[in-house]
Design goal:
about 180 residues; alpha/beta; 5-stranded mixed sheet; 6 helices
Amino acid sequence: MGSITITYSKKDVIQSWVNVLSKLENPKICISNGYLEIINSFFSANEKLKSLIVADVGDFSTTLFIKDSKCFLSSLNLPFGSDLYKSESDEIRIQYFNRLKNSIDSLKNEFNITSKTKVYICGLGLDLIKKDNDILPNNLIELSTLFGENIKNGEDESSEFLSNLNFHIQTFGLINNKKNI
């Protein structure tokens, strides 16, 4: 028997997007989150995986996607992103990662997630607080390392960036590198 995925969202959040897009007279309305596909791909690629956390670093906030051992997926916005921490100073940059670790540790307790749960990190803000060859602190795993050369970083403004294609490529890369999960 196969599995069924049901996703819930706050109706008022979705309705606010629909209202804005309607006022813009945009006939195409689609609200989606690509991380759902990536998180499900983790579990498809590794049946022994019980839980995981993905941190998406933005400029002013960080979104955590938490999937626990009961397959319950939730998300949480942390009120800090890369903007305050982008600096040449290692001391300032490490403060972001320590603050993130403290937040994740609290959530692990709240969601009854083991301390061995892997935490993956990604997002446009990560590039602003991580130096090119830095090893991430606190056992964080940079999501793009799993995808190797299959990932598109969207920095090439000369080509059209197709996010749906991007996530399929990432999923393919993840499945090919499942021993690293």
